[in-house]
C-alpha cells in the first residue's frame, strides 16, 4: 500500500514537474509598488530557479509586523517589492547543483539563511549568516544581483531572501529548511518567523534560567512567543507590558503572571517594574520596535546582572541616546535576530517539537484568511485586533 501510495505521489509530482519545471510561472502575487500604499494583487512572472536556488509553491504565509514596517518605511527596503517572510510551502522545482532539497519537499523559507561556511555559521556563538539581506542597505536581489520576479515589464524586488506573499517564490537553497511533510503548513508557517523569533530570544539568546523574573514589552505574535519561552524556561515571574489591554488575556493564557499597561501609571514603566521586583527583572525583552521602549526595557532589568534583549526591529534612521551608567553598572544589552537559531538546522527540529506537542501555535493564530484578503489582514494587525493572521494560498 505504502509502495502504491509512493508511486502515485511520484507519478503526480512528475506530471506537475513536466508542466512547470524550467519554465517561467505566471501567478498571483501581492506587490507593494511604494510605501504607505495597499498591496496590489497582480499577475507576476516567476523565473525558474538558477544554480543553488529552489522555487517554492507557497501554501500559507503569516503577516508579521516586520512586513508592515516596510510599508510604513520604518524598515527601509527597495521598491517595488514582494513582502512576506513567515511561510510554508512545497518545492516545485530546483536549480542546478541543489543537493539538500527536491521537488515535493515541504519547506519553510528562511529569512536568515544558513550557508554553513561563513564565520557566524561556523561559530557556536551566532546565527546571523553573512548571506542575509537584512543590513541597513538591503539589495532586494538574489545573490547574483538579479531578481526572479517581474510584473508589467518591471523587475520586482525580493524581501529578505524570502518573498512569500506570492503563489510561487524563488529562494537560495540555504534559505529553505525541509520539514516533516505531515506538518500542517497553515500553522507551522509561524515557525518561519514569529514563534521561533520570540521563543529563541529567551532560550537561545538570553538563556533564561528557571526561577528568573522576566519582563516582556509588546504582546504581539513575537512577544507572546517570548512569554511562551519564559514559561518553558521555568521563569517564576513573567510580567507582560502592553499599551493594548486586549492583549492581556492571551498573555495570561500563555504564561504571563502579571500584565501591566504603562498608560495606567504616572511614573515611567521602568520605575514601576523596578518597584514591583525590588531591583529590576533578571531579563527584559523589547518586542515592539521603538527606541523609547528599548531604553525602558534596559532600565527595567537588574542594574548589575540584568540582561535586556532587543527583538523589535529598530526603526530606520533613529538613534538611541542613553545614560552609559545603565551599562557601566553591569547590565548586558543584546539583540536577537530569528531567535538566535541557526535556521536550516533548527527549523526542522522546531517543527518536530511542534508535532510532539512541546509547544502550541494555535493561540497565536487569531485569523485565517484567503490570500486575496491580504489588505484586510494588515488592517487587523494595525488596529490591534489580530495576533497573527495566516493567509492561505
Ligand atoms: P505586533 O505589532 O503584533 O506587536 C507589538 C505589540 O506592541 C502590540 O501588542 C502593541 O500594542 C504593543 N505596543 C506598541 N507600542 C507599545 C508601547 N509603547 N508600550 C508597550 N507596548 C506597545 O508585532 P510583532 O509581534 O509581529 O513584532 C514585534 C516586533 O518584533 C516588531 O518590531 C517586529 O518587526 C519585530 C520582529 N523582529 C524579528 C527579529 O528577528 N528580531 C522577527 C520578527 C519580528
Ligand atoms: Zn517576522
Ligand atoms: Zn553563513
TrEMBL record:
MF term (GO), any: alcohol dehydrogenase (NAD+) activity
A GO CC term attached to the entry: cytoplasm
PROSITE patterns linked: ADH_ZINC (PS00059)
Domain Enoyl reductase (ER): 34-391
Enzyme Commission designation: 1.1.1.1
Named cofactor requirement(s): Zn(2+)
Signal peptide start and end residues: 1-29
Assigned keywords, A-Z: Acetylation, Cytoplasm, Metal-binding, NAD, Oxidoreductase, Signal, Zinc
Subcellular location: Cytoplasm
Chemical reaction(s) catalysed: a primary alcohol + NAD(+) = an aldehyde + NADH + H(+)
UniProt subunit comment: Homodimer.
Family per record: Belongs to the zinc-containing alcohol dehydrogenase family.
Record PANTHER family: ALCOHOL DEHYDROGENASE, ALCOHOL DEHYDROGENASE 1A
Protein name (record): alcohol dehydrogenase
The organism of origin for this protein: Gallus gallus
Amino acid at each position: 500500500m505504502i509502495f502504491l501510495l509512493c508511486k502515485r505521489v511520484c507519478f503526480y509530482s512528475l506530471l506537475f514537474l513536466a508542466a512547470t519545471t524550467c519554465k517561467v510561472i505566471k501567478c498571483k502575487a501581492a506587490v507593494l509598488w511604494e510605501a504607505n500604499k495597499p498591496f496590489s494583487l497582480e499577475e507576476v512572472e516567476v523565473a525558474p530557479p538558477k544554480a543553488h536556488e529552489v522555487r517554492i509553491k507557497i501554501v500559507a504565509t503569516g503577516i508579521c509586523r516586520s512586513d508592515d514596517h516596510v510599508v510604513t518605511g520604518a524598515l527601509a527596503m527597495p521598491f517595488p517589492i514582494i513582502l512576506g517572510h513567515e511561510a510554508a510551502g512545497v518545492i516545485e522545482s530546483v536549480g542546478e547543483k541543489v543537493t539538500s532539497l527536491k521537488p515535493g519537499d515541504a519547506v519553510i523559507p528562511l529569512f536568515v539563511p544558513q550557508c554553513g561556511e561563513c564565520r557566524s555559521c561556523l561559530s557556536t556563538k551566532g546565527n546571523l549568516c553573512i548571506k542575509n539581506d537584512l543590513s541597513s542597505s538591503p539589495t532586494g536581489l538574489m545573490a547574483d544581483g538579479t531578481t526572479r520576479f517581474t510584473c508589467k515589464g518591471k523587475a520586482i524586488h525580493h524581501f529578505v531572501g524570502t518573498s512569500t506573499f506570492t503563489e510561487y517564490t524563488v529562494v537560495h537553497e540555504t534559505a529553505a529548511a525541509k520539514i516533516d511533510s505531515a506538518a500542517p503548513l497553515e500553522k507551522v508557517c509561524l515557525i518561519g518567523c514569529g514563534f521561533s523569533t520570540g521563543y529563541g530570544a529567551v532560550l537561545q539568546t538570553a538563556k533564561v534560567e528557571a526561577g528568573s523574573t522576566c519582563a516582556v514589552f509588546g504582546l504581539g505574535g513575537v512577544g507572546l512567543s517570548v512569554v511562551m519561552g519564559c514559561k518553558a524556561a521555568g521563569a517564576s515571574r513573567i510580567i507582560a507590558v502592553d499599551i493594548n489591554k486586549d492583549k492581556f488575556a492571551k498573555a495570561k493564557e500563555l504564561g504571563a503572571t502579571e500584565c501591566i499597561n504603562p498608560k495606567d501609571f504616572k511614573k515611567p514603566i521602568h520605575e514601576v517594574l523596578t518597584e514591583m521586583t525590588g531591583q529590576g527583572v533578571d531579563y527584559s525583552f523589547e518586542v515592539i520596535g521603538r527606541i523609547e521602549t528599548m531604553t525602558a526595557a534596559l532600565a527595567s532589568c537588574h542594574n548589575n546582572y540584568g540582561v535586556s534583549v532587543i527583538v523589535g526591529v529598530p526603526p530606520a534612521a533613529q538613534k538611541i541616546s542613553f545614560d552609559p551608567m545603565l551599562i557601566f553598572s553591569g547590565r548586558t544589552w543584546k539583540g536577537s535576530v530569528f531567535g538566535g537559531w541557526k535556521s536550516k538546522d533548527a527549523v526542522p527540529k522546531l517543527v518536530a517539537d511542534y508535532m510532539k506537542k512541546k509547544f502550541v501555535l494555535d493561540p497565536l493564530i487569531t485569523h485565517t484568511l484567503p490570500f486575496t484578503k491580504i489588505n484586510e489582514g494588515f488592517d487587523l494587525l494595525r488596529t490591534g485586533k489580530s495576533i497573527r493572521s495566516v493567509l492561505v494560498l
